[in-house]
Design brief:
globular; 29% helix; GMP Synthetase, Chain A, domain 3; alpha/beta; Rossmann fold; 4-stranded mixed sheet; 269 residues; single chain; 2 domains
Length: 269
Amino acid sequence: MPMKSIIGYDLIGDIAIVRFKEISLKEKIQEAKKIIQENSNIKTVLEKTEKIKGKLRTYKTKYLYGKNTTETIHKESNCLFKLDVEKCYFSPRLSNERIEVSNKIKQMKLNKKKNILVLFAGVAPYSIIIAKNNPKSKIYSIEINRLASKYAEENVKLNKLNNVRIIQGDVKKLEQIIKKNKIPKKYDVIVMPRAQLKYTFLKEALQVSKKGTFIFYYDFCKEKEIEERTKNIEDEAKKQVKKIKILQVKKAGEIAPYKFRIRIDFEVK
């Protein structure tokens, strides 16, 4: 699909979300029309008009051509995800990450039944892919965005799963969420595909960990800052009186020139 006038694009379901160079609206519509004509799987073309912002990680788009909608169903790893692309954060670029984390969990030598906590879960892509790959485990999926949580509930039904529980709430109030919803106080695995925020949420995650808990933690930084990020985890663990072992630090995509999304895998000892 890439054309000379396009800076970048994401394909979510049958919606193409495009970032254009400085061209006229008429030219953008012409390019959008070409995209649909040349790609039978694309039904809608939207222009991304702002960066992702806020704790709900949303952004605005402008309709250009095709079916006038922001709702779609995205297929990934034999799973279906219904969402509104403007009102729910979803990155198709994390598809490899989601299946990799899911496979790592499957390979872990834990009890057959694992309690898995997914924080910042959105419409539940991590939760559902993990659940499908680990049917004997119970996945608790927490997201602050009310609409995303509603879509997550629908997605659990779409994928015919009975081992995912969707919970709407703020991770900063994790202790209250656990008490209110009567869910486990400690977890075997914690997945943290968090937004690009200053607050780390490591304190909350470590408080619901136990000896042997595996944590998949996402952060954003420049290459020279990666060591500092791992030290932050070690420092927070000391504050929570926890011993940890860093297992892997992986670049999980370049989000800007010389700036990366990283995943730090570590175990509570």
